[in-house]
Amino acid sequence: MAKDIEFRKPKTKIHLFDVINYIVFVIVALIVLIPLWKIVVDSFNAVGVYQFRFWPNRPTVAGYLTIFSTNKLYRPLLNSFITTIFGTLLGLVLSTLGGYVLTQEEMPFRNGLSYFLLFTMIFSGGLIPEYLVMRQLHLVNNMWILVVKHGMNVYNLVLMRNFFEGIPGSLFEAAKIDGCSPMGIFFKIVLPLSKAALASIGLMFAVTVWNDYSTVQIYINNRDQVNFQYILRVMVMDGDTPTTQYAVSQNTLYYAAIVVAILPFMVLYPFLQKYFVQGVNVGAVKE
Amino acid sequence: MAKNKFETTSNGVPIRHKPLGMRIWNNRGFYLMFLPVFIFVLIINYWPMLGIRYSFYDYTVKKMEWVGLKHFQDMFSGKNSSDFWRSFFNTLELSIMKLLITTAASVIVSVFINEMGNLLAKKTLQTVIYLPHFLSWAVTAAIFTLFLSASSTGFVNETLKSWGVLERSIDFLHLPTWWRPIFYLINIWKETGWGTVIFLATLSGINPELYEAADIDGATRMQKIWYVTVPALANTVIIVLILNLAKVLNMFESVFVLYNTRVYDVSDVISTYIYRKTFMAAVPNYGFTTAVGLFKSIVGAFLVLVCNWASKKIRGRGII
Questions:
Q1: Nearest residue, CB atoms, B41 vs list A104, A117, A210
Q2: B198: distance to nearest CA of chain A, Å?
Q3: Domain match, B258 and B210 both
Q4: Which of A165, A45, A66 is nearest to A114 (CA)?
Q5: Which domain CATH number covers B182?
Q6: Residue A228 in contact with residue A260, Cβ under 8 Å?
Q7: Which secondary-structure segment (H or E) carries B59?
Q8: Which domain holds residue B6?
Q9: Which tens digits make up the pLDDT trace of B148-188?
């Protein structure tokens, strides 16, 4: 009986399950969003309050002014931008070059080169030997360590190779017959066809470098060379706040610093979300 | 090369392979393209491997002296063994618990998302729950340190007090009883959403005919979830667990940004132990910490190989 009614008017029946489902969802979304919203509101609020508010009750931008006018705070921010840009560029150059070469089936020692890379995913020298090597390379107390350390990523290189393998081989054959050199094929055919993969993997590099805190903590002591993540951690956890010309409550400054640390990413995220997800699927779907 | 001499084409003409030297010369462009990668990997990854020898030396600012297996004795049964084993078992417990809890949460959320009819609501929710994954651990720790603080601006403590749940503030991140549950909760908050990506990809691949067949058999919604959706995820869950099991020893940043002297007993992991012993010790002995690192690398390599083998068995391809 109940089935008949459902059959006649399927759209009007609201399942209890759907109601519960949407309630669960709103709760899940709020668990993510409330902390983020509170950070933004508190960063504009002159006094620290514990409550969650939708709007600052005593609005101020002193937190942000402090960050952008205090050398000890904007310098790390600048370092973050520089290292992220160069780290991403280096990462893309190395992973596309390496990934493309590894697709060349006729190249002697191709497997050897693959194993040369894959072995690094199994075994490493460990933190201390790495530190000692970096010290010899003068990369200790030097922000370029972030670029060097993240620029070469075997996992991303393999993702790139997997993507290139999906490009139809006939395209390469045709180009070869037309007299195109390997370099020419790489620049004129492979790269233009790989924009989506480049975006995905470029984002992975950018997020890794921008978000890296532990490398700075381990390798850098000099406050001129640290990145913004490090300064944020030092301020909030160790209470090590630089003196500034603005009267700003600690809380406001902390929350403003958190917002600055996530802002570049938040601005891009809604537009680039599909590329982030693609990055995972390039790796997961390949058979 | 020798056996290639006897290869022939279909009509019996012997195939002459180009000599190796010529093939290398023909591919010179590719070798040149690979050179930067080769140099980087050699310097960043292989050069440090030579440093493994320090684990058999006393290596301090003052001296470098061969000591054989002394550091390994110290580590396993000597003066540093209690701290070392504590960090080893903490690493296992924290990362395996974290892995199981966040995977379970991701599976549950994925099943719910999959049941959502409204496409726009679905997309919006996905966008929202993926977000925390991209916050750095420094940011995450800053947020939760502020929220969980016992001061008058601590969001969680003051809210719970105003609701009458708590009598007085609890300094969550500084109490050994609270640190681990809080650590797991933060991980759930940060990683559950992103963890659904792979499960949702699996769910979108379920043949709709399975649901139709279940409809015809008169299955209720819960029955469909239980007998169609959940079994379809089983394989993916196993793969996700295997993939992550290979990296259980790599835990560093998430612990480092949240732990403190008062909770070392429940939070100190191998990497943080190596870090402290090297960079916060009065007279660091690089030899000893290299030895601990070597132990971690060897166990880690073993785990990767085992997981790779298991992955090949289950889905026909490895993880590396």
A1: A117
A2: 8
A3: yes
A4: A165
A5: 1.10.3720.10
A6: yes
A7: strand B57-59
A8: 2-68
A9: 998 888 899 999 999 988 888 899 999 999 999 999 999 99
